[in-house]
Amino acid sequence: MDGDLMELLITYDVDTTDREGERRLRRVAKVCEGIGHRVQKSVFEIVCDPVQRVRLEAALSDVIDHQRDSVRVYRLNQGTFAEAHHLGAAIAPPHHGPLIV
Amino acid sequence: MVELLNTLYATTPGTSLHLDGDALRLVHPERTGRHLVPLVRLDHIVAWNGVALSDDLLHRCAADGRSVTWVTRNGRFLGRVSGPQTGNPMLRLGQFRAYEDPGHRLMLGRCLVAGKLHNYRQLLLRAARDSSGARQTRLREIAARHAEALTELAAARSLTAVLGIEGQAARGYFRGLDVLSPGVGAGRTRRPTLDPVNCLLSFGYGMLRVAVHGALEQVGLDPYIGYLHGVRSGKPALALDLMEEFRPLLVDRLVLTLFNRGQVATRHTETLPGGAVQLTDEGRRMFLEQWSTARERKWHHAGLVSDLPAALLPLVQARLLARHLRGDSESYLPWTVT
Predict the structure, then answer these.
(1) What predicted TM-score, i.e. pTM, was given to this entire model?
(2) What is the pLDDT of residues B116-128, one digit of tens each?
(3) Where do runs of H (alpha helix) occur along A1-101?
(4) Closest chain A residue to B23 measured between Cα atoms?
(5) To probe the interface with A, which of B19, B25, B36 has the most A CB atoms within 10 Å?
(6) Taking each helix axis from N to C terminus, what angle separates B102-129 and B89-100, rounded to the nearest 10 degrees?
(7) Largest separation between any pair of C-alpha atoms in chain B
(8) CB-based contact B142:B131 (threshold 8 Å)
(9) How far apart, in whole angstroms, are the C-alpha atoms of residue B12 and residue B203?
């Protein structure tokens, strides 16, 4: 069923020394929020298919300043998110679980 | 294969849902911080009354083909919106022609009831296997009556006869509810439901209806032109038709299991003055959690090679029905388990 799905971890650094940088930071966050769950300030966990991944990377590439910012995309083995341990004030994103609010 | 997307159940009154970029933002006065759900991972939103959706979100959902359903606090269907109509006119014409043809209508009615009776019989036989003594005998008796009903069904010559056979079998089944799950009352009550088991059943049927209605719209069938259930304005007859075969295993079985495991506590339901029993907020959440997990459980499908998660069964059966109504297959084969 979920054969095509992959788990990605995205981390980013955006240079926010000027107003333009702050804007880019917000935009990067916005793009990531549209597909995954924020687990830390600049770390997202994403479950997506290959097409969505290409779109995501293109969108991020359009937003960032290639000289000053960096985005890292890690592809993880399926099931890594479910096994992740967290300490402290961490959140557990509902990737597959029921969404009841 | 399609990806199994999530359904968002927004039950807490006072919650409002907004569009935030490509994500859905949940806002509730008592919840702090930002709560975002990526829209790409959602295929449906079920909102209980008391939950507000912003126009932007609705427009976005309509554009993406993501449907939204509103239900009452007891899970009764209120309304539904989806984007532009899907499906092709030839299929709809086929659907209407089958309705106009009494022979065809009878044949489809028989198929739909057969699926329901067969699956109820399987549920009863499974329960009988796990019990003993007088309980087992009674369960086997009710199951045997379902088997007889199936034989009678083959000989039924009118839709009234089909409905009579179905009604009688259903009454027999509901009278045996107390044997299926010790401690619950026998008999079916609805509008209002008078005991917890009926309350959960009604709620479960409501959720099933949301799923089946959506599946029919997705394949382009008109949910309001049905064969077994008469056509009446505002009544989604085809959705009710197609629900029949899923009721026993997707809803009844889940509800009975919850009772048998003792997972339904007194705090999950409340009795109103007048005797009506309804779910409490906690009960609703408990049931929805179980329902969401059960949606992922895989079931055997006779027509397909691989097993299918429960959430996709309505869609697959709606496709099979559409295939038949378009004239690509001789008859409609309901989903049954053995």
Answers:
(1) 0.72
(2) 999 999 999 988 8
(3) 19-33, 50-63, 80-83
(4) A34
(5) B36
(6) 90
(7) 63
(8) no
(9) 16
Cα(B303)–Cα(B317) distance, integer angstroms: 10
pLDDT, tens digit, for every residue of B163-214? 999 999 998 888 888 887 777 777 788 878 888 888 899 999 988 998 898 8
B14: left (phi over 0), alpha (psi -120 to 50) or beta: left
Cα gap B38→B64, rounded to integer Å: 13
For residue B56, give every residue at least 6 positions away whose Cβ sits within 8 Å of its Cβ, in sequence order, or none.
Answer: B18, B19
Contact A76, A7 (CB under 8 A): yes
* Closest-CA residue to B212 (of B251, B185, B169): B251
- φ, ψ (nearest 5 deg) of residue B27: -125, 125
- Helices B253-260 and B281-296 meet at what angle, rounded to 10? 120
Contacts of A6 in chain B (CB under 8 A): none
Terminal CA-CA length for chain B: 25
Give the start-end residues of each E strand in chain B: 6-10, 16-20, 23-27, 35-38, 42-48, 52-53, 67-71, 77-81, 269-271, 277-279, 298-299, 308-309
* Both structure tokens of B279: 């779910």
